[in-house]
Amino acid sequence: MRKKVSITVSILVVAILLVACSSSDQDTLFVYNYGEYIDSDVIRMFEEEFNVQVRYDTFDSNETMYQRVSAGTTNYDVVFGSDYMIERMISEDMLIPLNFNKIPNIQYINDDFKNLDFDRENAYSVPYFWGTVGIVYDATVVEGPVDSWSILWDETYANRIYMYDSQRDSLMVALKLLGYSLNTHDAAELDEAKQLLIDQSPLVLAYVTDHVINSMISGNAALAVVYSGDAAFIMSENENMNYVIPNEGSNLWVDAMFIPTTSQNVDLAHEFINFITRPDISIMNTEYVMYSTPNTEALKTVKDEEWAQNIAYNPSNELLNSLNLEMFRDPGEFLLEYDRIWTEVLAGTR
């Protein structure tokens, strides 16, 4: 299994080679995905199998992706994104309905990940990975049970706490601790969450994103808010690290593939989505990035791996059903209120 942290370099190398080896007699597929979220060998295999070129770009957040695609100046054929942003893009007529006759490998996607609230008719997207958000912690440093978001406000761990540099994820932590929905449309509840995060700020070492992975592997902090796939990788590299989904509940998320209306190569885009959903390719990707796969055949192969036997990668249905887990929803016009609150959080914490 390759190390996740090497993928950024690999993708850059692939991109350079693609530009250098450009050929006018080959179709080109434009793909837009999160950083560190695919095995770069998969790109090469698709190119060879279909005699095409792939131009692969990456983004760091759903918001960045949305801004670039919605600007209408790009011609991405396949884009990866999260549940709530897919819901928004569907509502704004930015995605084309998929032709599932061209995606027969949809048969391998667990029914639990179809017809979800963000794409109720399962018409526009194909699930790619899924997971939770929780706390990864150093069991040699943290004392007592870790079962509540409140531990992130424990002064014992001052300057040894990482929060996630994301509007929805950080506000989710505070909202859940307060007993509110992570999709609240109540401005007063958001104000409470804002104040809770501002009160916490003297204890926080930093708000981070991908940097949290290597930092926690190195033991630079005691606790961190992380995505489950990052936790699985961290634990595979440092046996002192554990992962927990707090009792107050958390975010259950799904990332999926879709085709924007600006696509110039819709047929090839369907081929790519079908290829990515093929069990052997799903195995390669889930082993590379260590995020949970919705592909039933792929899961049969990897679930016995040591790294896949923890709640970060493969939580039981009993555990998931026992927790107050929610998917993020598109807040619509109320997004302006989330933006306002997050701006005030950042002003009060930095």
SS content category: alpha/beta
The CATH architecture of the largest domain can be given as 3-Layer(aba) Sandwich
Q: Output the CATH class name of the largest domain.
A: Alpha Beta
Unreliable spans: 1-23
Provide structural commentary.
There is one protein chain. Helix content is 39%, strand content 18%. The protein is an alpha/beta fold. α5 packs across α6 (187-200). The two termini are 39 Å apart. The model is unreliable at 1-23 (pLDDT under 50).
Summarize the entry for a quick read.
The protein has helices at about 5-20, 40-50, 60-70, 85-90, 165-175, 185-200, 210-215, 230-235, 265-275, 280-290, 295-300, 315-320, 335-350; strands at about 25-35, 50-60, 80, 125-140, 160-165, 205-210, 225, 240-245, 250-260, 325. With about 350 residues, it is an alpha/beta fold.
